[in-house]
């Protein structure tokens, strides 16, 4: 006889809902995406689908067609009827009794939520505060996986210190990215951000910010900065799918651009908005 | 209106079973243990409970008393009625709409399964084969967390190459441990295993093996070995809670101790059995 226990309730294993045997919970064995709509139109749907397909391939999740995922996202968006929607979805490898290896015919689980996108107008107008935290993540942060324990611990630590985001610093003393965002510094008029290597998520918002900067004639330098360089930067900001460009006005306690969003970040916010109409 | 989608089924968010909002799935935000019984008696229960309490503290999961966890494990063991049981359990931080930070009053979720422990007599008699894989894990492998994607990918890669376990090698070219086991080499009569630092799980079986080796008068060297040293070792073995000592007879294709379990590993198996009666 096999038994399971859910909180204090004993259940014969064969009566257990398969959701309890999801490899997403056992191992974080799944990948996810977050996308949003602006004014009734999904933003960068193709880019999010391409990244999701790449994440699935990287962790070898098969058995669900990317076309099916796309159809479900579109169906949920239609059913939600929200002009500015935030859509989260993940695919896990599937449900099975716990075992490191998986059966070839395991069926992936799909899960999605849709809700109103957060209103980021106040954060855009006032800016946010950030603090640094050691980057403890694994070596494949280019995969958007469900292994996010270091991210949430860093973010919570930042919140406990009164900050809105944790900026991760690697063993070499370089900033990689935020716990849930891409990180940018404007130094000497140039836009600096980490190059896309295995320890960075290929941010889709970053892609559009680089375009926005090019449209404004702002030079791009794909190089990591140190916390000290960041604290002395002309301007700082983070980028996140749900809120796009958010100015950073305090970095590890040091005010940035006199503690208010600077002119170049404001220009990038305006430029980014052109992509979303 | 908030909506969720489970596979192809749309559900209003308020009707969704909270299990779908488990932070264990969203973030791998939880910790786990595996223990077993030998002949009706749970092995090293206190040690597993102490490690579990340490894991919970390390990821700041509160709201469930370790005494309650222990009672549930004992209740499940009693209900299962198996002499040689394998018990898996985890606690996740709880269920909540997805957000990196958590509310102070979030209630943890407990989940447990109990089944017959695997019969490892054949593996003990014949030995197993292993191959190396880069150690891509995060920097807090001393925490027994649900972030196990690098582990399962390494194990599956090993399985695809016809091996029973993946042996992880860090950037310095040193063996840390197995994807789901501790790793040991016997070189010049001494037992070599990685020291317990942040990139190693403090294996409870390892603790008893060190005692078993001491009982046999075998010197212990807490130092990492390279794959080359391992391939030339007198004997190799792995240690895992469910099967204790398992000889390794092939390492990256190289036969170890003529491809059969060697005398010192056999002695350690015998010595270990004394702890389990």
* Uncertain residue segments of chain A: none
Mean pLDDT over the full residue set of chain A:
97
The interface involving the most residues is between:
A-B, 67 and 67 residues
Oligomer: homodimer
Q: Secondary-structure element order of chain A, as H and E? A: EEHEEHHEEHEHEEEEHEHEEEH
Number of helices of chain A: 8
Helix % of chain A is: 25-40%
Largest sheet report of chain A:
9 strands, mixed
CATH class of the largest domain in chain A: Alpha Beta
User: First CA to last CA of chain A: what distance?
Assistant: 59 Å
Shape of chain A: globular
Beta percentage of chain A is 25-35%
Radius of gyration of chain A, taken over Cα atoms and rounded to an integer in Å: 20 Å
Total domain units of chain A: 2
Give keywords.
homodimer; 277 residues; alpha+beta; D-amino Acid Aminotransferase, Chain A, domain 2; four-stranded antiparallel β-sheet; globular
Note down, in words, how this protein is organized.
Two copies of one chain form a homodimer. With about 280 residues, chain A is of the alpha+beta class. Chain A folds into two domains: about 5-115, Aminotransferase class 4, branched-chain amino acid transferase, N-terminal domain (D-amino Acid Aminotransferase, Chain A, domain 1), CATH 3.30.470; about 120-275, D-amino Acid Aminotransferase, subunit A, domain 2 (D-amino Acid Aminotransferase, Chain A, domain 2, Alpha-Beta Barrel). Chain A has helices at about 25, 45-60, 65-80, 120-125, 150-160, 205-215, 225-230, 265-275, and strands at about 5, 10, 30-40, 40, 85-90, 110-115, 130-135, 165-170, 175-180, 180-185, 190-195, 220, 235-240, 245-250, 255. In chain A, helix 6 crosses helix 8. The radius of gyration of chain A is 20 Å and the shape is globular. Chain A starts with a strand and ends with a helix. Chains A and B meet through strand 1, helix 1, helix 3, strand 5 and strand 6 of A and strand 1, helix 1, helix 3, strand 5 and strand 6 of B.
